[in-house]
Every structure is written in C-alpha cells, then in structure tokens.
C-alpha cells in the first residue's frame, strides 16, 4: 500500500507559500506563475492557513471585493487540515473528500514535508490499482 511519504518522495518537497499580510493579488500571481491551485500561508515559520483558487472565487469575486486590497489572512482557509507522511493514500483521499479540500499539507513534527493535491492522490491510487490488476492477471495466467 502506498503511503503519503512515497508520493511526496516521488512528487518532490517543493513548497510554495505566502505570508498572511500579503495581498490576495500577489497570491494569485504566484499561483499562476507556478501553475498551482493553492499556497500555504506561513507566519513566523508556522503553517496557519491555505489560500486556494476556490477561496478567491468564493470570498473575493462573488463578494465583489478587490484582490489588490484584501490580505490573504482574510480569505485563507484555517485551521489547516494536514496529514502525516506515514499515513496511506486512502486516508489522504478520505480527508480531502470529507473536508471538501483539494490540497493537503504533509506535516511531521511541525515540519512541512510537502503538499498533495487531489490530482496527485487520485493518479497515484489509480496507478497502484492498475499495477495490482496487471499483477493479478499475470498470476492468473501463470496458474492456467
């Protein structure tokens, strides 16, 4: 069974973040430049929130606010739901589904190890299932 650690090791440990007092527009610029859907919000080396495209759509656009005027702190999602690198991917998927989130920070002993997206988790689970099916088909072919 694949673990969160396995996926983070494969994906990489790159973490994109922003400070809570930065403007939402700056967060959007970073997300566009890096082609990502969320940023971790870090204050004094602590993870305090996550800002996503969904936060922007629901808390800025739909409310008629200006992203150049609003600090990230005002629209970030907090408290942050995290997962341990020792957990399996099924737990990651369950956490993301139950909490309606698309980005899940991986944290161990207060240290951020990486961030998983729903796409990362789904692709890894599907690949693992494909490998299991191939293995079982090969095994069945060998016993006939």
Could you list some keywords that capture this structure?
144 residues; alpha+beta; three-stranded mixed β-sheet; two-stranded antiparallel sheet; 5 strands; 47% helix; elongated
Note down, in words, how this protein is organized.
The protein is an alpha+beta fold and 144 residues long. The chain is 47% helix and 19% strand. It is built from 6 helices and 5 strands. It has helices at residues 4-11, 24-34, 53-61, 72-75, 89-98, 118-143; strands spanning 17-18, 38-43, 46-52, 103-108, 111-117. The strands form 2 sheets. A 3-stranded mixed sheet has the order 1-2-3. It has a two-stranded antiparallel sheet with strand order 4-5. The model has no long low-confidence stretch (mean pLDDT 93).
Largest sheet: 3 strands, mixed
Compute the average pLDDT.
Answer: 93
DSSP helical segment count? 6
Q: Gap between N and C termini, in Å?
A: 27 Å
Cα shape: elongated
Number of strands: 5
How does the SSE layout of this entry go?
Blueprint: H1 4-11, E1 17-18, H2 24-34, E2 38-43, E3 46-52, H3 53-61, H4 72-75, H5 89-98, E4 103-108, E5 111-117, H6 118-143
Parallel strand pairs: 1-2
Antiparallel strand pairs: 2-3, 4-5
Helix pairs in contact: 5-6
Quick summary:
By secondary structure, this protein is an alpha+beta fold.
């Amino acid at each position: 069974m694949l673990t969160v650690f396995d996926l983070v090791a494969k994906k990489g440990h790159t973490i994109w973040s922003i400070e809570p007092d930065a403007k939402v527009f700056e967060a959007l610029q970073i997300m566009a430049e890096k082609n990502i859907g969320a940023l971790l919000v870090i204050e004094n080396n602590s993870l305090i929130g996550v800002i996503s495209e969904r936060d922007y759509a629901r808390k800025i656009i739909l409310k008629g606010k200006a992203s150049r005027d609003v600090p990230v702190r005002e629209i970030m999602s907090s408290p942050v739901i995290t997962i341990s690198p020792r957990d399996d991917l099924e737990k990651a998927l369950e956490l993301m589904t139950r909490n309606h989130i698309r980005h899940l920070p991986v944290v161990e002993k207060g240290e951020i190890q990486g961030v998983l997206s729903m796409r990362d988790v789904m692709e890894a689970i599907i690949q693992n299932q494909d490998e299991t099916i191939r293995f079982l088909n090969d095994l069945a072919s060998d016993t006939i």
